[in-house]
Amino acid sequence: MDGQLRALVVGGSVHWVDPIVGVLRRSGRRIEHQWAGTTEQLATALDRGRWDVVLSDYELDGREGLSSLELVRRADRDVPFILVADAIGEEEVAAAFRAGASDFVLTSRLDRLSTAVFRAIEERLARQRAAAELERSELSFRVLLD
Predict the structure, then answer these.
(1) Calpha distance 85→39 (Å, rounded)
(2) Which of 18, 46, 51, 81 could cross-link 75 (Cys pair, CB 3.0–4.6 Å)?
(3) Domains contained in the chain, number
């Protein structure tokens, strides 16, 4: 990562974005962000850009659930998705992890957000490096067999 973080902030209200982006800015990185408050805005943002992380409220378009996670996973299976919510139950958090969420942060514990974001991004990069290394190894093996 080059020092700039591209964050897509999903759901909540536009006022919800400032505290989240503020926490990330304190990390010392430049933050480029976009807010998507509706399903349509989320789909457009996913079509138009490549994101380092998606930070999502549990609710989108007034509906509780993980519709934002489903849209994100269809567009980019590997982008870190962090659920940020006031309070949701354990069942909902477990469902989010089963559906592919990278982490969960309570809005009352936003001090934890930067750590969660940068750990999720580093895990993604590690997976990409491992996949690239495996591909190189398989290619070398094929060349050796030929």
Answers:
(1) 17
(2) 46
(3) 1
